[in-house]
């Protein structure tokens, strides 16, 4: 394995080789070919993120312990917490959905905040211990599955739906959950992983060369300015997907592990095209029962009624909350289908080795990645509606089988987007 200059990178989205220039305070370096932000200077990144992480850890506990919201109708009261919502799903026969809800609302945010706290504390000394790299890889994965903001919107929709039937009062937990959304977003915005990676001791025992003041020799030159587009794959260089380190393996077909963070290296994500196809076909199959089967079954004084996602939208519209009806319609019905179609389009154009509109296709891919999580909205709406409306024998709501298929569609498309390798969009031009 040959060491290369620290500031030489291959764009993670299009594989173009480039040097990161010395950035001014708050400056950003964008890839000249695809526009991806390769590096951003975030002043006091580690200190700021640590402060947000400490606050987020405290607020996370407050959001989970006390009452999230309280319902009162005809002299009866009911209340729930985040965990309580998931437990109610479990008790009403939706164990898998309950586990997904717990993972996305409690486990993933807690692990993300906990790891970030550990990483930021340990990265204060240089060189920072090598295991920070492993932890950082884990935190990124958990971050993509932590859906506090989607849960918050889900709680609000559930609240407005229930307000038609009973009086609902938000509890302390709800305000804490709202604050947590802001703090987690602040952590993401203020954190600069490059700063940590620069300090980390390499997994193979080497010490990091700290980029010193000598970086002024670096120019903002980019390989794309020459007539020939230089990419990592062309020069036999592999970029680590976790830490961004560029290395030259002895055998390009078996690059081994990243010398810095220990991540398994690959020129392109493994069997990216086949796997993405398999996942979106599975998602498309689940999309049918997700829309046909009921997501909720409500029983009122002995008579029961099935609710599908679409009938829920109609109900919201009829009760006058057309804006919420629109949000649920877009998030639950249109986005999942649009995501499946967009990924299929990307796969087909990559397989046809199309060179048309690569920039637009990359934008489409980023959009699919970005909106993916918001489709989980309806799962959270069902969870918190079920958790609150347990007023037997007056009225009760049970989750239906549709909600599991629906969660499956969201998860499958999210994993499909992770499997697709955006660099393949650009490969045909090389
Ligand atoms: Zn790029
Ligand atoms: Zn690495």
Identify the CATH class of the domain at 269-430. Answer: Mainly Alpha
Averaged pLDDT, please?
85
Provide the structure class: alpha+beta
Q: Report the end-to-end length measured between terminal Cα atoms.
A: 24 Å
Number of helices: 14
Largest sheet: 4 strands, antiparallel
Order of helices and strands: EEEEHEEHHHHEHHEEHEEHHHHEEHH
Number of strands: 13
Strand order of the largest sheet: 11-10-13-12
Strand residue content: 5-15%
CATH fold naming of the domain at 269-430: Butyryl-CoA Dehydrogenase, subunit A, domain 3
Helix content: 40-55%
Corresponding CATH architecture of the domain at 269-430: Up-down Bundle
Which radius of gyration do the C-alpha atoms yield? 24 Å
Question: What kind of oligomer do you see?
Answer: single chain
Task: Report low-confidence residues grouped into runs of 5 or more.
Answer: 208-227
Bound molecules: zinc ion
Looking at the structure, what is the overall shape? globular
Describe the model:
- This protein has a 4-stranded antiparallel β-sheet with strand order 11-10-13-12. Strands 6-5-7 form a 3-stranded antiparallel β-sheet.
- It has helices spanning 45-64, 82-91, 95-122, 131-145, 148-162, 172-190, 193-199, 272-292, 309-318, 322-351, 358-371, 377-388, 402-419, 423-427; strands spanning 8-10, 17-19, 28-30, 37-40, 69-73, 76-80, 167-170, 238-239, 246-247, 296-300, 303-307, 390-391, 395-399.
- α8 runs antiparallel to α13 (402-419), α10 (322-351) crosses α11 (358-371) and α10 crosses α13 (402-419).
- β12 and β13 form a beta hairpin.
- The chain is of the alpha+beta class and 430 residues long.
- 39% of the residues are buried.
- Bound molecules: zinc ion (ZN) (2 copies).
- One zinc ion binds next to loops.
